[in-house]
């Protein structure tokens, strides 16, 4: 074991490192990346999201003060045509197969329940996709006594975020913060029976195009720390496509399925840090804390959350770096050691430098959007103040500025100088027949 006291990087890695993983896992990542001619980061992100899901609350990492489970929210940022969807869907096939088996087993148990009575069974879901917040809460409630995780996968994560936009007034952001942190919370809706989510564990995986970031992630979400809880996979350089005819080797597909099958049988493991790993973590935490002193609140939140994410990432790294013999004809072994090594912690810290850099690039786009939004809000308020009420057409004003009609009405209602005037904003909103 080596004794590393500080990271050796002068700049963030240009891609997610994989040197800390078991050789077979490295080969799987490289092979899938080569066949699909995509960024290796896409595959690495899928591996961590899937393994985090299967491990669920069976895995816990203790740093001497806090316990953390290894759930991750991973957002792949890349333009259309970069092939971020197909390889991830291929990596998800063992999860789809396991979900199919669980559905089949549930149906058998449910038929027995309908025939003989007893306690009504609930499904132990492993993956969901196009699900409303209410639907997700129900799935999480059903999994209150399960330790296996849940993966929310959306090919385009913007759809998931748009759903949150629609439900935002109902406190969805606060609920998702609780889900990420594993904190129990109640759900009270008029259309649902009261629920208590006692054991939330959710991983999220999906993609988004760079040009959609500013419209998908709201600036207010960064103020609340929601944006900073994600790990952004944002390659600076994408591989050139040569349109090769190569296909996935069955050996690698078998190896990946073997990993997932063995993880499905994993028992409870409470991971603890070696003395050397703890020293590395302490140094990293002190470094990020020093950085917080000279940055704005959004960036400060990135640094704060990354101190938690490095432990979550390290827990899965420990599972995937297992050097124990898998046996003849096998590719993967579950680790028997519960001690986090210095190498595993150092590797995880290097990965965090990559994610830190990606988060800054992500926030830079959001800040430009926020700046534009402030300008639009000021413009709307000024135009409303300068326009006689009977000449104002809210819809045409919205179209001219490039915002929604509801947004204009919101600015009108929030403008303090207008609250005391005789303007009827509901009437303004509905004024479709008056020319501006």
In short, what is this structure?
This protein is an alpha/beta fold and 436 residues long. Helices cover 53% and strands 10% of the residues. The chain has helices at residues 23-36, 40-55, 86-91, 93-116, 133-142, 157-167, 172-181, 213-216, 219-224, 250-263, 275-292, 297-320, 342-386, 394-401, 405-414, 416-419, 425-429; strands spanning 59-62, 67-68, 73-77, 127-128, 150-156, 185-187, 195-197, 202-208, 231-233, 269-273, 339-340.
Question: Would you give an account of this structure?
Answer:
The strands form three sheets. Strands 4-5-8-3-9 form a five-stranded parallel sheet. The protein has a four-stranded mixed sheet with strand order 2-1-10-11. Strands 6-7 form a two-stranded antiparallel ribbon. Strand 4, helix 5 and strand 5 form a beta-alpha-beta unit. The model is unreliable at 1-9 and 416-436 (pLDDT under 50). The protein has helices at residues 23-36, 40-55, 86-91, 93-116, 133-142, 157-167, 172-181, 213-216, 219-224, 250-263, 275-292, 297-320, 342-386, 394-401, 405-414, 416-419, 425-429; strands at 59-62, 67-68, 73-77, 127-128, 150-156, 185-187, 195-197, 202-208, 231-233, 269-273, 339-340. With 436 residues, it is α/β, with parallel strands linked by helices. Helix content is 53%, strand content 10%. The protein is built from 17 helices and eleven strands. It starts with 22 loop residues before the first helix and ends in a 7-residue tail after the last helix. The protein is globular and about 80 Å long.
């Amino acid at each position: 074991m080596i004794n590393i006291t500080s990271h050796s990087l002068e700049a963030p890695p240009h891609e997610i490192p994989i040197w800390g993983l078991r050789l077979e896992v490295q080969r799987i990542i490289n092979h899938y990346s080569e066949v699909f001619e995509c960024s290796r980061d896409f595959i690495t992100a899928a591996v961590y999201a899937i393994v985090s899901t299967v491990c669920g609350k069976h895995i816990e990492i203790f740093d001497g003060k806090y316990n953390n489970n290894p759930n991750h929210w991973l957002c792949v940022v890349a333009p259309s045509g970069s092939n971020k969807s197909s390889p991830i869907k291929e990596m998800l096939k063992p999860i789809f197969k396991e979900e199919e088996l669980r559905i089949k087993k549930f149906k058998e148990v449910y038929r027995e329940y309908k025939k003989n009575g007893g306690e009504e069974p609930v499904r132990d879901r492993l993956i969901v996709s196009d699900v409303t917040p209410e639907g997700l809460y129900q799935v999480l409630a059903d999994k209150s006594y399960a330790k296996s995780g849940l993966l929310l996968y959306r090919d385009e994560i913007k759809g998931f975020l748009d759903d949150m936009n629609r439900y935002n007034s109902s406190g969805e952001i606060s609920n998702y913060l609780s889900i990420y942190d594993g904190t129990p919370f109640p759900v009270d809706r008029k259309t649902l029976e009261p629920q208590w989510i006692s054991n939330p564990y959710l991983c999220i995986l999906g993609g988004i195009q760079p040009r959609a970031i500013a419209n998908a992630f709201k600036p207010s979400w960064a103020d609340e720390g929601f944006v900073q809880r994600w790990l952004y996979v944002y390659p600076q350089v994408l591989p050139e496509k040569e349109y090769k005819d190569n296909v996935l080797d069955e050996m690698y597909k078998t190896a990946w399925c073997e990993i997932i099958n063995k993880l499905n049988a994993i028992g409870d493991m409470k991971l603890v840090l070696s003395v050397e790993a703890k020293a590395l973590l302490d140094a990293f935490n002190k470094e990020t804390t020093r950085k917080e002193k000279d940055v704005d609140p959004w960036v400060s939140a990135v640094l704060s959350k990354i101190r938690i994410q490095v432990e979550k990432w390290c827990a899965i790294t420990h599972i995937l770096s297992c050097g124990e013999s898998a046996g003849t004809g096998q590719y993967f072994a579950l680790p028997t050691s519960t001690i986090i090594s210095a190498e595993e912690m150092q590797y995880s810290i290097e990965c965090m430098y990559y994610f830190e850099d990606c988060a800054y690039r992500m926030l830079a786009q959001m800040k430009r959007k926020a700046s534009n939004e402030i300008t639009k809000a000021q413009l709307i308020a000024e135009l409303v103040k300068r326009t006689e009420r009977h000449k104002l057409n809210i819809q045409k004003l919205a179209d001219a500025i490039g915002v929604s009609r509801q947004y204009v009405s919101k600015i009108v209602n929030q403008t303090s100088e207008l609250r005391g005037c005789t303007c009827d904003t509901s009437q303004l909103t509905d004024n479709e027949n008056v020319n501006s």
